[in-house]
Design a protein that fits this description.
There is one protein chain. The protein is built from six helices and six strands; from the N terminus they run E-H-E-H-H-E-H-E-H-E-E-H. It is α/β, with parallel strands linked by helices. Strands 1, 2, 3, 4, 5 and 6 form a six-stranded parallel β-sheet that branches. Helix 5 links the parallel strand 4 and strand 5. The longest helix has 22 residues.
Length: 186
């Protein structure tokens, strides 16, 4: 039996009823046995990055998030696509976190899921995020990729991911991510 794995979710959506929030909420039910999740809180409370603020000391929320990420076995990004990229508040959080030492993402297994109303499912946001993760020295899992197009048709009025093929695909990705975490841990 393999060691339990804890994954921190970084959500790129602030709306409670967003499709990405629904996907993030579904992850614990879709994960293999022994994988737990917690949703990182406070990304929306991080001030815009400013070296003058950093010179006076890191905001406590940044240090808390950095510690939460360092303590995780893996990180799951679940995000929409805004203007061919990730949402600004998520990029801002990554900018702040990249300046903490040690960088919390260094050597950390990452899984990415994007969802949008369009047919591409957030593909451009996913690949932009992968570029950012290079600088953070993170280890994104390459396959399988989850990009959910027409996501609004896969979420119920009560905010649950109900599309069974999508649920099955995410189950497969999370099982692969569990194996990826084991490989990275060596």
């Amino acid at each position: 039996m393999s060691k339990a794995k804890h994954v921190v979710i970084l959500s790129g959506s602030l709306r409670k009823q967003s499709v990405n929030a629904a996907i993030a909420r579904a992850l614990p039910d879709l994960a293999p046995e022994g994988m737990t999740f917690s949703l990182a809180q406070g990304l929306d409370r991080i001030p815009h990055y400013n070296a003058d603020i950093q010179a006076d000391g890191f905001p406590p929320i940044v240090l808390e998030l950095a510690d939460q990420i360092r303590g995780a076995d893996g990180i799951a990004f679940v995000t929409p696509e805004y203007n061919y990229s990730i949402p600004g508040f998520l990029k801002n959080a990554l900018d702040w976190l990249s300046r903490t030492a040690p960088v919390p993402f260094a050597g950390k297994p990452i899984v990415i899921q994007t969802a949008s109303a369009g047919v591409l499912g957030g593909v451009r946001a996913q690949y932009h995020l992968r570029q950012i993760l290079v600088f953070l020295d993170a280890l994104p899992m390459n396959k399988p990729e989850v990009m959910i197009g027409a996501a609004q048709t896969k979420i119920s009025d009560t905010g649950k991911l109900t599309d069974e093929p999508t649920r099955d695909f995410i189950r497969g990705q999370l099982a692969a991510f569990s194996d990826f975490i084991n490989r990275v841990a060596g």
